[in-house]
Design goal:
The complex is a heterodimer of chains A (110) and B (116).
Chain A: E1 9-13, E2 18-23, E3 31-38, E4 45-50, E5 55-56, E6 61-64, E7 70-75, E8 84-92, E9 104-109
Parallel strand pairs in A: 1-9
Antiparallel strand pairs in A: 2-7, 3-4, 3-8, 5-6, 6-7, 8-9
Chain B: E1 4-7, E2 10-13, E3 19-25, E4 32-38, E5 45-51, E6 57-58, E7 67-73, E8 76-81, E9 90-98, E10 104-107, E11 111-115
Parallel strand pairs in B: 2-11
Antiparallel strand pairs in B: 1-3, 3-8, 4-5, 4-9, 5-6, 7-8, 9-10, 9-11
Classes of the chains: A mainly beta (110), B mainly beta (116).
């Protein structure tokens, strides 16, 4: 069972920031929040993960609320190539697997 | 990030034949690899966990005699679909745990299987 809730779809204009929300109200203390995306007909691509602090890398920023019950993935300047399904996944430190939900289909338009 | 590669990218086979898909970790050693299956417009479903040097662990409902998994080295896991049927046509994706703590999992490009 997926432990996260995401909107099924979102739109974003090219060049704008894309803010993708994720609710994980039942997250426990040793569980991380992971984000992956899947471009059509490709394998999922790792984006970022975090425990409780905000994280940033070359692809995106991850903002986790203080109570850790929700998070937001931020793509600062969305491009057409960012159109994909984005998956927010909660995974325990000792869990070996990733369980995928339905994700958010992000459509970036010109 | 770490690179996981699958081969072939796509394959067409006849019903009743077997087909093998390879998954390689190109720049790291992976003691644990995973195999997923994805049907059109659906999410990824975990099929099995493959551990180097031991038997794979299959998820409920996945036939271990039909989907043979071998993880003979730290950089290679193979999935063999035996006696393939059209309903086995799907997108098969492997992944591997990376790093000392295995905190990050990287995925291959996926392999499209069409059984005719």
């Amino acid at each position: 069972d997926a432990k996260t809730t995401q909107p099924p779809s979102m739109d974003c204009a090219e060049g704008r920031a894309a803010n993708l929300p994720c609710n994980h109200s039942t997250i426990s203390g040793n569980e991380y929040v992971y984000w992956y995306r899947q471009i059509h007909s490709q394998g999922p691509q790792y984006i970022i993960h975090g425990l409780k602090n905000n994280e940033t890398n070359e692809m995106a920023s991850l903002i986790i609320t203080e109570d850790r019950k929700s998070s937001t993935l931020i793509l600062p300047h969305a491009t057409l190539r960012d159109t994909a399904v984005y998956y927010c996944i909660v995974r325990g430190m000792w869990d070996s697997t990733l369980t995928f939900g339905k994700g958010t289909m992000l459509l970036v338009s010109p | 990030g770490a690179v996981v590669s699958q081969h072939p990218s796509w394959v067409i086979c006849k019903s009743g034949t077997s087909v093998k898909i390879e998954c390689r970790s190109l720049d790291f050693q992976a003691t644990t690899m995973f195999w997923y299956r994805q049907f059109p417009k659906q999410s990824l479903m975990l099929m099995a966990t493959s551990n180097e040097g031991s038997k794979a662990t299959y998820e409920q409902g996945v036939e271990k005699d039909k989907f043979l998994i071998n993880h003979a080295s730290l950089t290679l896991s193979t999935l063999t679909v035996t006696s393939a049927h059209p309903e086995d046509s799907s997108f098969y994706i492997c992944s591997a745990r990376y790093g000392p703590s295995g905190n990050t999992i990287y995925f291959g490009e996926g392999s499209w299987l069409t059984v005719v």
